[in-house]
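User: For my dataset I need records formatted as: sequence, then structure tokens, nothing else. Please produce one.
Assistant:
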Amino acid sequence: MGARAGEAVDSAVLGPTPPPEWAETLRQLTHLVRAPVSPPFWWTPRTAFCGNVETRTSPSSYNLDGMNQQGPDDPPAFCFKLGLAGWGHFELDGEQPRKVTPGRGCFAIIPSRHRYNLPRESPGWTFAWIGIQNPLMSARVAKQMSAVGPLVELEPGQALTRVFLRLVRGAIKKDFRDRFDVELAMWEFVLAYERWAHEIRDSSGEGQRLLDDVRTRIVAGLPRAIGVDALAAEYGMSRSHFSHFFRTHTGLTPAHYAIEVRIHEAARLLRETRAPLKVIASACGFVNASHFSKVFCRYQHIRPPAYRRATR
């Protein structure tokens, strides 16, 4: 997943010159790398994470294949690299290489068909990186990548930048109190990325308007459960085109969201009425009370009768 802790390059001063806005960040990280700290006994790739800052100046020695960065028994992981000086290339699944310059970061799922390399025309590449081996976190990151792509544009003071650099510093200093602090910091990074992705998708408010419009159509169509084909037809699109359009703007699949809307409507009826479960199930487009209970429990993590008791 990149260099091991002992392979960190503290010769960033010999690499490319960082732009002024990233110079202080690079200076601080380089200072930390010169005095690495041994990890506590509980720090392992699966209970914590890895990360560092590196400078690469030799094109012939830096060409990483994303299919060869994990062992056969390792869980899914993700890596994030943020350029600090110079530039390198990131290539995803045979697409055109993307230039990763200072302030530009790239996410990658491991294993997957991606590649990092240093082109011969590059003056060198200094970047900070983290790698996290956690299937749930990796799945959350992959979901956002599918909606907004693997690249992010960051500034030094942004929330996502701050939590990322906290992880990089923590990977070098090992200054977390315990493994619970480590897990909290990792989740803060994932959630900061999800918030960033949401803001990018919905910068014009189009995503929220789309959710509101589709919700209105689904509720108005009850007790009939409106399928994705019918929603797509109302927007004048094919099923595949509408699914892609909806996911790009909301981060959700239309089928998943349609069920969420019906579950939320059922939850409202559980709170506000004394109607039997079979009546609520029918009113919200479910086949029967048993099917409704199973789906409700899957989405709300509580069975309908218990939900009704807890919210009365």
